[in-house]
Design a protein that fits this description.
The structure holds two protein chains of two kinds. Helices cover 0% and strands 52% of the residues of chain A. By secondary structure, chain A is an all-beta fold. In chain B, α2 (44-52) packs across α3 (61-70). By secondary structure, chain B is an alpha+beta fold.
Chain lengths: 142, 167
């Protein structure tokens, strides 16, 4: 599957540099895949906790951790959820650990090693402005 | 304030009253025709029904469009009518090569510009809906049986998209 880097408008005018993103649907939110920035330096896959109740994901009694992201102290709650990527023709789902974070400063999720990169062969072609992902799943998710 | 007759009833309408009536309302999916109000595209019948209180069956799309263009709003026609059903919507999610990396990004950027700071659902280079929260986005998609390609908040600062520290 191929995902074009996504450009966004800059608040002050102009255009923000296009970034590598993948649209990932949470189980229960298949009609609204969340834009996730591909973050090769991140161990976790993190998204806003705001999305958990919309997908019917309960975060009570789950493992939590505090950390800093973008200079902001936040807390994440772990849940194993089914994630799906689709490009309109192909679709792939996998069970992954996702940290739902509150507060969450970013306008997108972060797709890191656990939860995303361990499950795919990812080829980033920044020069051409896109990335390819190919599922590489086994029972360990690696 | 212009007076217009719609479905046998007379209404005094002006652009500010129409704009005010749409505050807090989300536009429904555009099937073909639209009018531009407050920087967003609206189905003409939705707007006229809101400002007059009439049932939508009481007037046609063309009557609504004509009434709103008389008030000075821009009207247009969608290049390709949107699919009504999620299955058709999924088919509309073009394959990577069609998503492209040259023409499409700029079109999406301009489509997103009026919605800086808001959550949006997009499909291709089209903004399906924009709202202050993802909850409203998800509810809108479900209500109108639409499937988005992606949902995110349009960043209101460069800082919001940088500084993702490794963890």
């Amino acid at each position: 599957m191929r995902f074009a880097f996504r450009a966004l408008p800059a608040a002050g005018g102009g255009v923000l540099t296009p970034r590598p993103v993948v649209d990932i649907a949470l189980e229960g939110l298949s009609d609204a895949p969340m834009e996730c920035l591909l973050d090769t330096g991140a161990l976790r896959t993190r998204i806003s906790a705001e999305l958990a109740p919309l997908a019917g994901i309960e975060l009570t009694s789950t493992l939590t951790e505090e950390f800093y992201v973008g200079g902001l102290k936040t807390a994440g709650a772990l849940a194993r959820v089914t994630l799906t990527v689709a490009d309109g023709t192909d679709e792939f789902s996998w069970d992954a650990p996702v940290w739902f974070c509150d507060p969450w400063p970013h306008p997108f999720g972060l797709a890191g090693l656990e939860g995303f990169l361990h499950y795919f062969l990812v080829t980033i072609r920044a020069y051409d402005g896109y990335l390819d992902i190919e599922p590489r799943l086994n029972s360990e998710g690696r | 304030m212009p007076t217009m007759t719609v479905s046998g009833h007379q209404y005094d309408l002006d652009p500010p009253s129409v704009q005010e009536a749409l505050q807090g309302v989300l536009p429904e999916p555009i099937q073909e025709h639209f009018v531009v109000i407050n920087g967003r595209r609206w189905p003409p019948k939705q707007v006229l029904a809101l400002v007059t209180g009439l049932d939508r069956a009481d007037f046609t799309t063309h009557q609504a469009r004509r009434a709103l263009t008389r008030l000075g709003f821009t009207a247009g026609r969608s290049a390709s009518p949107r699919p009504r059903h999620p299955s058709a919507g999924a088919a509309a999610l073009s394959r990577p090569a069609a998503v492209g990396t040259t023409e499409q990004p700029q079109a999406l950027v301009e489509a997103l510009r009026p919605f800086i700071g808001l959550w949006v659902a997009v499909r291709g280079d089209e903004v399906l809906v924009a709202a202050p929260s993802p909850k409203e986005i998800v509810a809108w998609l479900a209500r109108h049986r639409q499937r988005a390609q992606s949902m995110f908040r349009v960043p209101d600062s460069e800082q919001a998209v940088t500084g993702a520290a490794p963890q």
